[in-house]
Amino acid sequence: MEYRVKDIRLAEQGKGQLNWVEEHMPVLMKIRKRFSEEKPLEGLKISACLHVTKETGLLAKTLKEGGAKITLIASNPLSTQDDVAAALASEGIKVFAWKGQSKEEYYDCIETALGAMPDITMDDGADLVTALHSRDKSFLKVIGGTEETTTGVVRLRAMEKKGVLRYPIIAVNDAETKWDFDNVYGTGQSTLDGIIRATNILIAGKTFVVAGYGHCGRGLANRARGMGARVVVTEVEPVKALKAVMDGFQVQRMEDAAEIGDIFVTATGNKNVIRKEHFLKMKSGAIVANTGHFNVEININDLEEASENKSRIKQFVDQYTLKGGKKIYLLAEGRLVNLVAADGHPSEVMDMSFANQALSVEYIACHARELEPRVYEVPKWIDQSVAKLKLQSLGIAIDVMSDEQNEYIKTWLEGTL
Ligand code: ADE
User: Fold this and answer.
1) Contact 178 CB / ligand 1 (< 6 Å)
2) Is 121 a domain residue?
3) What local confidence, expressed as pLDDT, does residue 135 receive?
4) Which of 409, 391, 417, 389 shows the shortest CA–CA distance to 33?
5) What is the pLDDT of residue 117?
6) Is the CB of 76 under 6 A from ligand 1?
7) pTM for this structure?
8) Is residue 407 included in any domain, yes or no?
């Protein structure tokens, strides 16, 4: 079968979404134009396990213009935009993704993506790569891959350290033009968007607890404060905790924050960050959501065990009634609330992330033979060129160092005048 989507009749609606992103992702559009002329990916098969959104749609079309044959699957069972998936399928991209997959369906799609015998893998969370690595070596004709997100890079680095990684992977997440924008502004805004779309809760005046002060947590804490919330941060790393303090946030242990929070969001990349002892301390009416990659940050088993009743009160909002009558609301089944209950990061920020993706794939196509089975940084010149193109698209000019200034920053001879 060439595709599996929820409803191919949604294609017209999805095409509207794909037209929208063409206006909002100017850097990727520029790369797409060059790819269509130069065909740098001619003959390559790419299996991509990404959130199937309108932004990913434009990335897939860019890679196709570059000559690649794409198989696109979802990197989360609930994040697919069904109209976009239908539109891509109608344009000849092999898409196997729909919103509301069971765990079995999710992993079946991974099998389909592997069955396509890719030369290059693209991952968001490393589920595709880890599935591939559980196979017999003969399966492997992959020359390289890319990874989109922090959690995936952490998993891949662990594989590299254990000596089990079999091919080079570029950590797109670690490009400055990715994490410093996508993780901070993208997650910040879209997480609030997801919470608001699901609940329409007023943020102003609420106590908003952010677990984790990495880039995503920092972006979210700042946006929540901007909307008038009293923000509490929980952390395990002393330097990050200190940054949160100096950024003006209250820093507490989760066991203390649990008693005062109205809204809780996890952004740690770790598991069981909110668990039984915390649920038991929460106020009735507390809203709990996750914006980390996997649905492991909130211990849902604990919540179920502590509850005597669970009911879906609206899409993406489950009401748990604890023994004794207290109510806790879990959003998006503990999966990424920004992609499940909203549309994920805005196109303008994904423009830079996916420009890095497209250029990293091109880099692999050209340089795979020189690379070892390691996790690589995005080459600095790619990162810089994405920043330059983005500034250009915004019509922003910046200064250029004079020859004298260029010399000055290289010398150790000149000091106090
Ligand atoms: N990750 C976060 N937001 C996204 C988006 N809009 N598209 C693809 N991946 C994403």
Assistant:
1) no
2) yes
3) 82
4) 389
5) 93
6) no
7) 0.95
8) no
